[in-house]
Amino acid sequence: MLSAASARGLEVEILERPTAGNLFEAAELLGIPASSIVKTLVVKRADDTYLFALVPGGRSISWPKLRTVVGVNRLRMPDADLALAATGYERGTIVPIGSTTDWPIYADESIVGKRIAMGAGSHGYSLFVDADALISAYGATVADISVPEGR
Prior knowledge:
There is one protein chain. By secondary structure, the protein is of the alpha+beta class. The protein is 25% helix and 30% strand. The strands form 3 sheets. Strands 5-2-3-6-9 form a 5-stranded mixed beta sheet. The longest helix is centred in the N-terminal third of the chain and has 8 residues, at 23-30. It is globular and about 40 Å long. The model has no long low-confidence stretch (mean pLDDT 95).
């Protein structure tokens, strides 16, 4: 993954941390707010292609908003085996950097201007990167694609 980041001119920092049971536990271990951890969610299209949705902690994908931005009628979360096959990463470790395929990235607008933590490809590690640099390096689409969790 580090070589993939370097190839795109991205500066990343990877920190080892105890394995976390969930995003909020990971935030506590890292001493950062949950909103600073960005979930990389693999989303399957009807044509069996995928995309990445980058959504901060405490928020969930808004399916109507994401479908509108992507311009499709159907999207869904694939099962864990399909996500692994599509990215080369297990759930909880997925990051667009170094994915086996460079799927299109849709980033929630709320991460713009922030230094974010993400999965780092292996359990027990977190990757830190400037969100704007990541968005620029991958040509990500930035839009309002999330809602507060529980809605």
